[in-house]
Design brief:
The chain has 21 helices and no strands. The protein has helices at 7-23, 25-33, 39-55, 57-65, 71-87, 89-97, 103-119, 121-129, 135-151, 153-161, 166-183, 185-189, 198-215, 217-225, 231-247, 249-256, 263-276, 281-288, 294-311, 313-321, 327-335.
Length: 337
C-alpha cells in the first residue's frame, strides 16, 4: 500500500535511498532522479550523494557539479564538501575551487573550512587569509574566527590580535571578543581597545553589552555609560536595553531615567519602547516623548500609536490628542483606525 504524501512518506523515501546507496549508489541515484520533484527527491538525492562520495568521491563530485543550479545542487554540494573534507581537506578545497563562482561555491568552502578548523584551525585560517573570494573571504574569516574561539579562545585571540593587516584584524577580532563575552563579558570588555576601527568597536561593544546584560545588567550599564558619546556607546545602549528590558523592564527604566540627553540615550529609549510597547503601550509612548531627536521621536511615537490603536483604540486616541505629533500626523493615524 502506498504511503500518503507527507513527512512519513518523505522520510521513508530517504531511508530507502540511503540503504540502497550503500549497496549500489549508481542504481539508487537513477531511482532518485525518477522521483517527482520536491523535498522528498532532494532529501533522497542528498542521502545517495553522502554514500556515493564515500565510495567514489571523484565521480560523485563530478556529478554534483553538473547538476542544474538550484536547491538540489546546493544541498548536494554541501554534502560532498563535508564528506570530502572529512577524508582529504586539500582534495576538498581543490574541488570546491573548481566550482562556478557563486553561493554554492562559497557555501562549499565554508563547510570545508568549518570542518578543517576543528582539527587544524591555524591551517584553515592561513587558507582563508589568502583567499581572494571577496565577500566570501570575509565570511570565511568571520565564521572561522568564531568557531576557533569557541574551541580555544586564547589561541584564537592570539592569532587575531597578531594579524599584521589592520583591516583583517578589525574584521575577525569582534567575533572572537563576542565569543569570549559569552562566558566572561568583563574580560571581553578589556579587549575592545585592541580594535582600531570605530565600526568594529561598535560591533564588539554591542555583543559584550548583550551578553553582560544577561548576567549582570548593572555592571553592564556602568561599563556602557563609560564610553563617550559615540557609535560604540549607542550600540552598547541598544543591546543593553534589548536584553535588560526583557528580564527587568522596571530597573531598565530606572536606569534610563539617569541618562543625560544625547544620541545614545535616544537609541536606548527607542530600544526600550520597542520592547515594552506590547505589554504597556502607554508607558512606551510616554518614554518615546522624551527622545531628543524630533524626527526619531515622531517616528517612534507613530509606531507605538499604530500598535496601540489596534489593542485599545479609545485610550490610544485620547493619548494621541495630547501628544507632540504634528496635527496632520494625528489626523492620518486616526483615519486608519
Amino acid at each position: 500500500m502506498a504511503l500518503p504524501a507527507g513527512s512519513v512518506r518523505d522520510q521513508s523515501i530517504g531511508n530507502v535511498a540511503r540503504q540502497w546507496a550503500l549497496a549500489d549508489a549508481r542504481a539508487a541515484l537513477k531511482w532518485t532522479q525518477e522521483l517527482p520533484p520536491g523535498d522528498a527527491q532532494r532529501n533522497a538525492l542528498r542521502s545517495v550523494i553522502v554514500s556515493w562520495v564515500q565510495s567514489e568521491p571523484a565521480a560523485a563530485a563530478e556529478y554534483v557539479a553538473g547538476l542544474p543550479a538550484g536547491k538540489a545542487q546546493e544541498d548536494a554540494i554541501a554534502s560532498v564538501a563535508l564528506q570530502l573534507a572529512n577524508s582529504d581537506v586539500q582534495s576538498a578545497i581543490s574541488w570546491a575551487q573548481k566550482l562556478p563562482e557563486g553561493a554554492s561555491r562559497q557555501n562549499a568552502l565554508a563547510n570545508i573550512i568549518s570542518q578543517w578548523s576543528e582539527s587544524d584551525p591555524q591551517g584553515a585560517a592561513d587558507f582563508a587569509l589568502h583567499s581572494s573570494e571577496g565577500e566570501g573571504r570575509k565570511n570565511l574569516l568571520e565564521n572561522l574566527s568564531r568557531q576557533w574561539a569557541r574551541n580555544d579562545p586564547q589561541a584564537a585571540l592570539s592569532w587575531a590580535g597578531n594579524l599584521s593587516e589592520t583591516t583583517t584584524r578589525d574584521l575577525v577580532l569582534p567575533g572572537v571578543i563576542a565569543v569570549i563575552a559569552e562566558s566572561d563579558p568583563r574580560e571581553a570588555a578589556k579587549l575592545v581597545s585592541r580594535l582600531s576601527n570605530a565600526e568594529a568597536q561598535a560591533n564588539a561593544t554591542a555583543a559584550i553589552a548583550w551578553q553582560w546584560a544577561g548576567s549582570d545588567p548593572e555592571a553592564a550599564s556602568k561599563w556602557a555609560a563609560s564610553f563617550p558619546e559615540s557609535k560604540s556607546r549607542q550600540e552598547a545602549f541598544e543591546s543593553l536595553m534589548n536584553r535588560w528590558s526583557q528580564s527587568d523592564p522596571y530597573e531598565a527604566g530606572v536606569w534610563l531615567g539617569t541618562l543625560p540627553q544625547g544620541e545614545s540615550r535616544d537609541a536606548a529609549v527607542t530600544s526600550f519602547t520597542q520592547r515594552i510597547v506590547s505589554s504597556d503601550p502607554q508607558a512606551a509612548a510616554q518614554w518615546a516623548e522624551s527622545i531628543g531627536n524630533q524626527n526619531l521621536r515622531d517616528k517612534q511615537i507613530e509606531s507605538i500609536v499604530v500598535t496601540w490603536l489596534q489593542t485599545d483604540a479609545n485610550r490610544a486616541t485620547a493619548w494621541l490628542a495630547n501628544s507632540s505629533l504634528p496635527a496632520e500626523t494625528k489626523a492620518r493615524l486616526l483615519s486608519t483606525k
